[in-house]
């Protein structure tokens, strides 16, 4: 059992970390929450004079949460998250299975697959904007004249393709880490028992790689829900078909509408928190199972 002195020493050593987290995480969150209840600028007071400053606005800034533009941005964000994460999981698992195989040039293959993930998002957006321009590579290969980067459904598809190209290797990398800790004896036993390849995948590989896969999906969900840079660079700002919640918040903030921007930011934070909680609780993503098992083993000892 830990002594009181050990607990105080641990708290003292962790205090710098807590202080940094309070400054870079807690303070901005509380400031945004406070700003969401205030408005600023010029207004007429009770005597008809123009006054400038900041005043309490109550829930007025949250009225836009039910507006058409916010709901459209929320729908775009949700659609983008569901589609991209689903496709990236399938491709990421396939990449991990290929990268795990002992074949000639495996190191070169791994490096090649991970290159898109290493490319900065702004650079990737510019590259795909060049590919999807009217006289670009995409139209040349398909023999079409589609305006991919104009506002519309083709713009949604262009953003999804670019994001999947860039981020699927990240999922593959995390899944590969999970695959490499599966004992080879398990596969050898399955082979001796005459299990087919698809049976080995569904009954051995997928269950054993599930913890790593769930971590990858959770990371991607958090990242996709706050996407901003790729639609902004590839298609442009204030495009109805690809405007996300982060894009809407950025647009309001750049027009000095700090109250609505803070209210939308608070709503996005709650949205992400609810999705993360539901993912961990309802889908069984027990991310702290190893820690709990070690604690239980220590208590038994």
UniProtKB/TrEMBL annotation:
Q: How does it sit in the membrane?
A: Multi-pass membrane protein
Q: Which UniProt keywords apply?
A: Membrane, Transmembrane, Transmembrane helix, Transport
Show the Gene3D superfamilies listed in the entry: MetI-like
Which residue ranges does UniProt annotate as crossing the membrane? 12-30, 79-99, 111-131, 201-222, 268-288
Q: Taking every annotated instance into account, which residue ranges of this chain make up the domain ABC transmembrane type-1?
A: 74-281
The compartments listed are: Cell membrane; Membrane
The primary location reported for this protein is: membrane
Which Pfam families does the annotation name? Answer: BPD_transp_1 (PF00528)
For this chain, the family text in UniProt reads:
Belongs to the binding-protein-dependent transport system permease family.
Q: What is this protein called?
A: Sugar ABC transporter permease
Q: Which organism is it from?
A: Actinomadura luzonensis
Q: What is the lineage of its organism?
A: Bacteria, Bacillati, Actinomycetota, Actinomycetes, Streptosporangiales
